[in-house]
Amino acid sequence: MKHITLLSLIFTTSVGAQSFYEWDNPSKKFDVTNGQKQIQLTIVPTDNVLGLCNKEARNRGFSEYKSAINSCAFWNGDLTQCTIVVPKNTSMHILGHELLHCIKGNWH
User: Fold this and answer.
1) CA-CA distance, 84 to 6, in Å (whole number)?
2) Residue 62, Cβ neighbours under 10 Å: how many?
3) What is the pLDDT of residue 29?
4) Residue 8: domain span
């Protein structure tokens, strides 16, 4: 399994409920300056997103995804590492969506 690792990203984590338009708008601005910390980001491209996301969910004690998904993101226990699982042929929208989970947590 090929991993792409980016070290020393500085972002913030915050959670907030937003409308569909707000969280899916690619032009919406968001603040990443409050509560800065370093995180390690690992991007895992795969041909089997659902299978790998379910494996990651089980390993973390979460329930499996019941329907098809096109990506997922998981934090480690101390919120210093984030793993993103995407298809090998992905888009900026998919990768950006999951990256925002690494920055803001469960934001939608």
Assistant:
1) 11
2) 12
3) 78
4) 4-104
